[in-house]
Amino acid sequence: MERSAALGGLQPNYLLCPSRRRPSSPPLNSLPLPFADNTLSSLNFKLQKRFPLASRNVQAASSLFKRDAILSDTYSETAELVDMDWDNLGFAFLPTDYMYIMKCARGGDFSKGELQRFGNIEMNPSAGVLNYGQGLFEGLKAYRTKDGNILLFRPEENAIRMRQGAERMCMPSPTVEQFVEAVKATVLANKRWVPPPGKGSLYIRPLLMGSGAVLGLAPAPEYTFLIYVSPVGNYFKEGVAPIHLIVEHELHRATPGGTGGVKTIGNYAAVLKAQSAAKARGYSDVLYLDCVNKRYLEEVSSCNIFVVKDNVISTPAIKGTILPGITRKSIIDVARSQGFQVEERPVAVDELLDADEVFCTGTAVVVSPVGSITYLGKRVSYKNEGIGEVSQKLYSVLTRLQMGLIEDKMDWTVELR
Q1: Exposed site from 104, 174, 203, 389, fewest CB < 10 Å?
Q2: What is a single cellular component term in the Gene Ontology annotation (predicted)?
Q3: What is the CA angle 218-222-224, rounded to 5?
């Protein structure tokens, strides 16, 4: 587990960029230094309106006025928690304080990253991501521990997956180290938005997109790497309660040789039609089949699927049409460490009909038990539509590890203090 202060090792090219200024305010880096006492005093009220930080951190916020100030340990000691109803936190976007931006040209390398005040971004209408969908995203979470520290869960795995996806999409990508350091900086800059222990998590969304203008079909000439965050609760409205799925046998999420195995933005727009229809009929989500045989399980709209029978856990093998989920990978390791037999293989839809238990995994859902699945008009229920013993056990072990409640023998968590 990483014990050092996360921001202490950042290089000087990670700047705090106060680009989101109100027109009536002077540029932050143009104010004279050092401040006279009365000047600093008069700025306190303005800072609290402009920077939603707690009063005891006004001094830390005033350090942002230094020209091109690099992130420091002082800044990592962020304010008290945001005053909000943490008990009713859902899975919906909430704007926070800062976002991280880094750019590079095609064929170049990402170098200078900046933290900016969270806000809208400008983009050319001819940007590659807008016209040809040249974009990827990742998703990971930060958890607050009982001792007040913050844990990230396997951020290097997200970095590796983004690099693999970028290669498929003809895009440059940050190095693993750049990705992880950028995530750390963004989380610490928004530390006050990390929910209290047991109340949720801080969802972290890294984006990689072709931001340069391109008219003909070709890779964009410029790329932007951006990270924003939002506090979240449960992904499904049911929470940890069982969800109800319908098997889709006409529409398909991915095809062999396509991009189903990478986290490109187009994969998710393709599921909206079937998902919307399913939700209108009272289902939680859609389970997709392979497009060749139309009988093998692939994945749910945004998560992987597992089937339990006689203490054997089976999940569809990763062969290019299924996203290699990091939670999926982690659950397989956790399950094996708990004595379960896990098989990665083609799983026929017929196996759902007599399964003992079914559950889904993903960054957003973590582990979500399935109460029922409907296939060709036939509804199959599991455990009286309750939470199965296997999914309950795996959920408990993984979430306790993510929140620092048990020893991390896997060396998966990264601690920020």
Answers
A1: 389
A2: chloroplast
A3: 120
Tokens coding 256: 């062999």
pLDDT digits (tens, 9 = 90+) for 51-105: 344 333 333 333 332 223 334 333 444 468 999 999 999 999 999 999 999 999 9
Structure tokens at 286: 């859609």
CATH class of the structural domain 98-233: alpha beta
Tokens of 172: 């440059």
Q: How confident is the model at residue 236 (pLDDT cuts 50, 70, 90)?
A: low
394/23 Cα distance (integer angstroms): 52
d(CA 67, CA 32): 10
Architecture field, domain 243-412:
Alpha-Beta Barrel (3.20)
Residue 219's Cα: distance from chain center in Å? 25
Active site residues: 263
> How far is CA 50 from each of CA 54, 62, 122, 230, 342, rounded to the nearest angstrom?
12, 11, 21, 19, 52
Whole-Å CA distances, 83 to 88, 108, 119, 198, 269: 13, 43, 21, 16, 34
CA distances from 62 to 22, 50, 65 (A): 17, 11, 6
